[in-house]
Amino acid sequence: MLTLKRIAVTGGLATGKSSLCEMFQKLGAYVISADFIVHELLSTNSSYVRDVTLLLGKEIITDGTIDRKKVADIVFQSSEKLQKLEQLTHPLVRQVIQQVYEQICEKIQREGAPSLFVVEMPLLFETEAPFLSWYDATIAVTCDEAIAMKRFSEKTGYDKQEYLRRMNRQLPQATKAEYCTYQVDNSGTIEKLKQRATELYYKLIK
């Protein structure tokens, strides 16, 4: 079976991971997001929903479905519950990523295929250490912390304290960048990010 190069995109809160991935997708990559997979698991995997509800309590249910905002409010105030939730979640996410990768590679022989397989994985180093060798390259999207904080606040409505509390659960941006194969700075304009994304994309597909 033919294979695609596997790329993981990571970074801190509101650095622009999704923006970079969208640009890669427009250039021809297949992109899958860990956050999207979790959303799908919460919608379709009844045993996972049951386990999450048992862990966090029935108060996370709104109108018959799990409210992700309520989940975040609970786990980001309890490192123990966050760790247990990650232990439930990440093996399932990893399984889905590998299944999708195999499906995409099978399609190559029948229909042609995308140029890269890109996974947006915010907690790549925090939760996926045993799985890192599966990727051919890793990318850290970074930006000035004041800019990231402003973007986070504008997107979520949360304040600086919530940004800092969540980032305390992650490795610092500089550490992620040091661990990654490539670093993309997104402190500037969207046009600048697009230029950097295009340059890196063509480097990756060589």
Describe, in plain words, how this protein is organized in 3D:
This protein has ten helices and seven strands. The chain is an alpha/beta fold. Helices cover 58% and strands 14% of the residues. The chain has helices at residues 17-27, 34-44, 46-56, 68-75, 79-111, 124-127, 145-156, 160-167, 173-179, 190-204; strands at 6-11, 30-33, 61-62, 65-66, 117-120, 137-142, 182-185. It has a single domain (6-204), classed as 3-Layer(aba) Sandwich (Rossmann fold). It has a five-stranded parallel beta sheet, sandwiched between helices. It has a two-stranded antiparallel sheet with strand order 3-4. The relative contact order is 0.22. α1 (17-27) crosses α10 (190-204), α2 (34-44) packs across α5 (79-111) and α3 (46-56) packs antiparallel against α5. The longest helix is centred in the middle third of the chain and has 33 residues, at 79-111.
